[in-house]
Amino acid sequence: MKNIETRHWTFLGLFVCIGLVMLIDVKLDIPVSAQTRKMFDFIDSLPAGSVLMVSFDHEASSLPEIRPIGLVILRHAFAKGHRLIGVALLAEGTVIGYRLMQKTAAEYGREYGQDYVYLGFKPQYIAAILSMGESIPRTFPQDYLGRPYEQFDLLRDVDNYDDVAAVISVTDGSLTTHWMEYGGARYGVRVLSGMTAAMVTTFDPYVASGQMHSLVAGLRGAAEYERLINREVGGERGMLAQTTAHLYVIALVLLGNLIYFRSRRKRKSA
Amino acid sequence: MSDPATIIAGLLTLAILSFLYRDNPIYKMAESLLIGVSIGYTLVIVWTSTLMDLLFKPLFSDGQYALMLPLVLGLLMFGRFLAKTSSLSRIPIAVMIGSGAGVAIPVMLEARTLKQMSATVTPLVIESGFPDLSAIVVIAGVLTTLSYFYFSREHKGTLGKSAKIGTYFLMIFFGATFGYTVMSRMSTFIGRMEFLLTEFLHLSG
Amino acid sequence: MDRKVALGVCFIFGLVMFAQYFSQHPAARSINQAILEYWQIIFAFTLLVGVVSVFKNNVVQIRRGQDRSYRLITLAGLVAMPFLALIWGIKADMPFMWVFENIQAPMQSTVFALLAFFVASASFRGFRARSVPAAILLLSALIILLSRSAVGTFIFPQMTEVADWIRHYPSMSARRAILIGIGLGSLTTSMRVILGIERTWLGGGK
Questions:
Q1: Third-level CATH fold of A34-236
Q2: How confident is the model at residue A1 (pLDDT cuts 50, 70, 90)?
Q3: Cβ proximity of C40 and A124 under 8 Å
Q4: What is the 3-state secondary structure (H, E, C) of chain B?
Q5: In whole angstroms, what separates CA A254 from the centre of its chain?
Q6: Cβ–Cβ below 8 Å for A253 and C117
């Protein structure tokens, strides 16, 4: 017990709170925000067969949060009959994106080469984004599994961003900034994003200026999107636990400040 | 009973979580494995997706001999391992740094500076004649925060007051960012708990 | 001499990549595409150098007897992944994919999940309203946290609207100012790098 410090009690408290709440199967009623609706409306309004590029610009560390976001976007796009090109600008996103696209495509009976192609990873994301603006086949002469670009029906008429309706960057960092700045500003490609909640305030100025069309953020964003597409991806399930976690942190902040101000008053009166 | 993959993933998850108590040999072993596997993974992905795709196949199979130049430049990077040849690695680095700086200039100017400035300049009075408070807040926020980052003059007088207000806007931003960051980190933990409770321990449906 | 050559190379490539932005001529676009490819290839080699460096350091430490068992595990992982990819490939349901999905990804996301605990602990121990700016930070964070939970609207019906307004206006304006500052700073730094005024990237030595 000598080794148990204050932080261990806060850790234990969080563990117990979340653990207990997760044993309860309750789905909370989450209203859909305007920005989630905006992305949904965009993908929904595209004519069937539109080509969308989905870029998996994230690492495995944020998988629990980013996977539901990627899933809802892919499910919506496949359900609408859009054709998807998958790329990854971070190495870890490569395999995650490949598996996610493969599994989701199978749910909707989509065929590789006709309805979706996964091109894989290219390093140095700025060079990759600029290079795709000139020529996607020159940037990705082969797909992820080493088959020639020309082999795929879907890619026959896709040469650069002019042939793509939008790029959707699924990210846990600031890589979407480069999509907007190098892809959007230079080549005029429309950029949408699914991102972790931590990155939201980073991208707010870009949404306000119109450089980013729309974004879906965090597990809550995934839960909102779930409602719109009527498919469960785990977003709504996590909302009760999310609420509990937030209340726990708020309680800790208030308690910490209460202790601080009381001890400050005691020191002043002493 | 979970399948072997789930058991392994679950045990490794618990090994990492053991760090919360304190650093221990089980955590260290898991961490070492993670580092090794991550580096090996990156090596495979970079080799297959870039070096084979963009260099070796076009160079040796398709006869694009112009690619000898990036091959040589890339090999010069290995000069770092010997003291005598380490300075040679500056040349490929110079190619990357120079290229990056060159493409950044127009982009930083257009996309990050001018576009953001133009988005700030919006009508301050709406059609009905009333002031648009939100637009006023945005302009005030941008100008005062910029004044906070202006270090060529001492923050006294009007500049000092402006910088102080800018500080308050920055605190609002940091507070909002903290709130969203908490949300994000909790989501990641909730995801791992979901895995442990449903797939590993079968305590939840 | 080497430094001058490197500075010269940096200047040439910087100038070329800056100039091609303003040209749609096929020759310019061709040069642009070629340099972008070279850039990616060289970058891939820098990653290789990193891998070799890690391998080398671990071998040296193992020879010295420092944390031998941990370093052997690291090397085993490092060697195993390319071996698995070489023998069975990188397709779905292959060993390479299995190791990524059941060893790397779970551990990586758990390491990140640890941050949730540290954030909670930091909230209790460090988040104090000691001054007016700190109090504003605290209030902003609390409003966002409450609005993002399901109970925010029970405490204050317009909680979501207030939080959204804070995010889209005052918070956004501060972030915009930071972006403008970074943009101007990056612009000048890029110019200094191309002109050889900024030389920190050259490192030490002759």
A1: Rossmann fold (3.40.50)
A2: low
A3: yes
A4: CCCHHHHHHHHHHHHHHHHHCCCCHHHHHHHHHHHHHHHHHHHHHHHHHHHHHHHHHHHHHCCCHHHHHHHHHHHHHHHHHCCCCHHHHHHHHHHHHHHHHHHHHHHHHHHHHHHHHHHHCCCCECCCCCECHHHHHHHHHHHHHHHHCCCCCCCCHHHHHHHHHHHHHHHHHHHHHHHHHHHHHHHHHHHHHHHHHHHHCCCCC
A5: 32
A6: no
- Which residue in chain B has the smallest CA separation from A24? B204
The 3-state DSSP class for residue A54 equals strand
Interface test with C, best of A94, A211, A252 (most C CBs within 10 A): A252
The answer to whether the Cβ–Cβ distance between B189 and A18 falls below 8 Å is yes
Mutation for testing the B interface, residue in A25, A130, A209 having most B CBs under 10 Å: A209
B174 phi and psi, to 5 degrees?
A: -65, -40
Closest partner residue to B90 (CB to CB) among C46, C53, C202 is C202
Chains with 3 or more CB pairs under 8 A to chain C: A, B
Q: If contacts are CB pairs under 8 Å, which of residues 165-184 in chain C contact chain B?
A: 165-184
Q: Which of B65, A130, A185 is nearest to C29 (CA)?
A: A130
Residue C140 maps to a domain: yes
pLDDT, tens digit (0-9, with 9 covering 90-100), for B30-71: 999 999 999 999 999 999 999 999 999 999 998 999 999 999
Half-sphere exposure of A77 (CA within 13 A, CB side): 26
pLDDT at B1 over 70: no
C64 contacts chain B (CB < 8 A): no
Residue C150 in contact with partner chain B when CB distance is under 8 A: no
For residues A125 and C64, give the distance between their C-alpha atoms in angstroms, rounded to a whole number: 39
Inform me whether the pLDDT recorded for A235 exceeds 70: no
Contacts of A among chains (3+ CB pairs under 8 A): B, C
- Tell me the two tokens of residue A25: 């199967």
Give B155→chain A minimum CA distance, Å: 26
Please report the ipTM that was assigned to this predicted complex: 0.90
Query: Which residues span the domain enclosing C178?
Result: 127-195
pLDDT tens profile B147-185: 999 988 898 899 999 999 999 999 999 999 999 999 999
Q: What is the pLDDT of residue C175?
A: 97
Look at chain C and report how many structural domains it folds into: 1
pTM of the model: 0.93
Write out the two tokens for C29: 């676009």
